[in-house]
Amino acid sequence: xxxxxxxxxxxxxxxxxxxxxxxxxxxxxxxxxxxxxxxxxxxxxxxxxxxxxxxxxxxxxxxxxxxxxxxxxxxxxxxxxxxxxxxxxxxxxxxxxxxxxxxxxxxxxxxxxxxxxxxxxxxxxxxxxxxxxxxxxxxxxxxxxxxxxxxxxxxxxxxxxxxxxxxxxxxxxxxxxxxxxxxxxxxxxxxxxxxxxxxxxxxxxxxxxxxxxxxxxxxxxxxxxxxxxxxxxxxxxxxxxxxxxxxxxxxxxxxxxxxxxxxxxxxxxxxxxxxxxxxxxxxxxxxxxxxxxxxxxxxxxxxxxxxxxxxxxxxxxxxxxxxxxxxxxxxxxxxxxxxxxxxxxxxxxxxxxxxxxxxxxxxxxxxxxxxxxxxxxxxxxxxxxxxxxxxxxxxxxxxxxxxxxxxxxxxxxxxxxxxxxxxxxxx
Length: 427
Ligand SMILES: Cc1cc2nc3c(=O)[nH]c(=O)nc-3n(C[C@H](O)[C@H](O)[C@H](O)COP(=O)(O)OP(=O)(O)OC[C@H]3O[C@@H](n4cnc5c(N)ncnc54)[C@H](O)[C@@H]3O)c2cc1C
What we know:
Blueprint: H1 3-19, E1 32-34, E2 42-46, H2 50-61, E3 65-69, E4 85-88, H3 96-116, E5 121-122, E6 126-130, H4 132-147, E7 153-156, H5 157-163, E8 174-178, E9 182-185, H6 187-199, E10 203-205, E11 209-211, E12 214-215, E13 218-219, E14 222-224, E15 229-231, E16 234-237, H7 243-246, H8 248-251, E17 256-266, H9 273-276, E18 281-285, E19 292-298, E20 303-308, H10 327-340, E21 349-359, E22 366-370, E23 373-380, H11 390-402
Parallel strand pairs: 1-15, 2-3, 2-16, 3-10, 6-18, 16-23
Antiparallel strand pairs: 4-9, 5-9, 6-8, 7-8, 11-14, 12-13, 14-15, 17-20, 17-21, 18-19, 19-20, 22-23
The structure holds flavin-adenine dinucleotide (FAD).
Flavin-adenine dinucleotide binds next to helix 2, strand 4, strand 11, strand 17 and strand 21.
């Protein structure tokens, strides 16, 4: 919502108040708006990345009066949910919590995407080039797949080569194929959800929010960038890598915001008809588990997205950090890409992006109540793997707010107190 539109909405809210003096708890002063009303519980969601968008979506669907705000807009280029695509997979070793959450989320990506009117998930399958370290991980994952009546296929490299002659797979025994997997649209999903919500009556404010007064075990209001205060029944802060700025005492030492480069190369169009028809999203891990490369080929644009998880990432400021990718990073991405996709040798680099992870010490998410406010939920700590879970997170947070689900220790704010070292393992 533009500044003018926001002023208009504030004005409207004030005049609604004037018209409903009795029997309604709307009470607005010039610069202070109370969203509380008798009919519906009101919620303000701060942050329109994938977690905030899906949370606002499910809260709205469950009948809450929702206001969503973001200073830079839904899925903006600074957000961790910015860019084109994110991998969707279930494979989490033996971790049943994330397996189930990813499975639930995939269903919701499909169903709720339909409700919104846009295809958000693309079921390309996932190919994992199995160097040694991933054998154990995939083997460990098999149990959960079997329990869920799903399969992880083992494709011998000879068979893979016969199917995709353009692949370099002579050094590996086999690949693993997960047919359920694929990719979701990143920024476009956030934008589509917010478009849908605005059409459905949810207010979107183009503004940052900071927590206001804590009193009687509750957060009383939030403060928008122009100083307006908003009172509501519940508040959700889902502002990703900005969470330590919003709650410095609580989260500064517990969330590590790190820089992650992404490269976009131009694949040859027309010369590889099989590739042009589409290719699974893919991951590659080397034997020592030091190289974790992954990519998405978009057949409609011939853009070959290529990224790798930094093993020793540097800290990053999401507001002002320099998003220029350096040559050494491009060279390393190119090396990892050409290792499996020889036809990409010398492919032009089209553009680059820098995104950030918001790591918790244990790489588990943060979906917990603020220790000093029973009506304030902190939703974040994506730790480089949250996007796929977006709709399941939104649904879960809605259930937490309504009391339908109990808070889990695994995702709580308080568990962070005991964690002082950051693991280098990735989920
Ligand atoms: C390069 C890269 C690749 C990734 N690949 C995958 C993948 O393949 N699969 C996967 O599942 N996950 C992946 N992830 C992780 C995933 O993208 C993130 O975990 C997820 O997007 C985090 O979403 P979020 O909503 O928590 O944060 P964000 O998307 O950062 O959203 C936070 C929002 O809050 C807003 N904001 C900031 N301050 C305020 C304020 N004061 N008030 C209101 N709003 C505010 C921001 O503008 C922003 O829009 C990847 C991440 C990166 C960086």
